[in-house]
Amino acid sequence: MYAVRLWSVRHARFLSGVYDLFERLLVAADPLLARIGYDRLEPAATALERGVKGLLFDCRMCGQCVLGSTGLSCPMNCPKSLRNGPCGGVRPDGRCEVEPWMRCVWVEAFEGSRRMPGGDAILAVQKPVDHRLWGRSAWLGVLRGRRAGSPDAASKGTRSTDATTMVVSRKAA
Fold first, then answer.
1. With 162 labelled, which of 17, 76, 89, 138 sits at a CA distance of 20 to 30 A?
2. pLDDT reading at 141 higher than 50
3. Where are the alpha helices (DSSP H) in the chain?
């Protein structure tokens, strides 16, 4: 998984474009998905999301995806679960102090963000993780947030902010 995760960060521009296309398809399908019911879709959407994002990004399924603002490097892969930047223990060679075999997630995030359109989104402060959303689909959370009239569903108490929402937010700004 680690090698695929590094590949994904190195190809952040391409994968960001794929994610952008996926978001457009997801938004276009939203009326149908809403009629079916998000709660009914949750198990299937979560399984699909876990498979895709687990493979590409070593996703931890926090339910509040910020991949679009962290260069497609999932901050939940940080052994300390730091969501807003590196700790003070990053080694001079960019490796993690807790897992010395691994490059710091935030070093990877910064490098990946430089490859993405709107890479300055990495500078935005992320909200703390809402642990009630662990294991839930961030993709459906984006749709729920859009239906509630906000791209930031987490602030409305619905569900989550996904990387695709971050892409929309960057384009709107």
1. 89
2. yes
3. 2-10, 12-36, 38-57, 105-115, 138-147, 163-172
